[in-house]
């Protein structure tokens, strides 16, 4: 009796991250984390490079237990990383920006669907690339809001009140 040999194909998908400045200058040493349903995903740095991309693949349970996995994804000198072995919806959050640059204010929502189609914040990027633009300088605090509105109102009331007092004094002097 002979058994039939069957083969299964397991599809793994990926997306690429490109960290750059406004002038398309690549930024090295930016750190990212990828989470799914609030849980950090662990990765292993693949020793090979895929073209110009530093490759991270999703870690196996054995690699996680042997402390060979990391949850930090760090861009190379070309500002690029390739994240492999994923499927579903994730949050890509920048945890550390390169020196002199601001980190992202909010994480990107990334969906990897059947066929390897990738959407970023519900928009389809070209060639599965996730482009992360950063600016240098410091982040300015937000201005305005309820505090300044109250100050303007109180100031206006004081000006009107002092005008009324001044008018009453002039009338009293005139009598």
What does this structure look like?
The structure is a single chain. The chain is α+β, with helices and mostly antiparallel strands and 175 residues long. The chain has two domains: 13-134, Sandwich (Immunoglobulin-like); 141-175. Helices cover 19% and strands 37% of the residues. The chain has two helices and eleven strands. It has helices at residues 61-65, 146-174, and strands at residues 13-21, 31-36, 39-40, 43-50, 53-58, 73-74, 80-86, 88-96, 108-113, 117-120, 129-134. Strands 2, 3, 6, 8, 9 and 10 form a six-stranded antiparallel beta sheet that branches. It has a five-stranded mixed beta sheet with strand order 4-5-7-1-11, with no helix packed on it. Strand 2 (31-36) and strand 3 form a beta hairpin. The longest helix has 29 residues, at 146-174. The model has no long low-confidence stretch (mean pLDDT 85).
SSE layout and pairings?
Blueprint: E1 13-21, E2 31-36, E3 39-40, E4 43-50, E5 53-58, H1 61-65, E6 73-74, E7 80-86, E8 88-96, E9 108-113, E10 117-120, E11 129-134, H2 146-174
Parallel strand pairs: 1-11, 5-7
Antiparallel strand pairs: 1-7, 2-3, 2-6, 2-8, 4-5, 8-9, 9-10
Quick structural overview:
This protein is α+β, with helices and mostly antiparallel strands. The protein has two helices and eleven strands, in the order E-E-E-E-E-H-E-E-E-E-E-E-H.
Throw out a few tags for this protein.
six-stranded antiparallel β-sheet, 2 domains, 175 residues, 11 strands, alpha+beta, Immunoglobulin-like, 2 helices
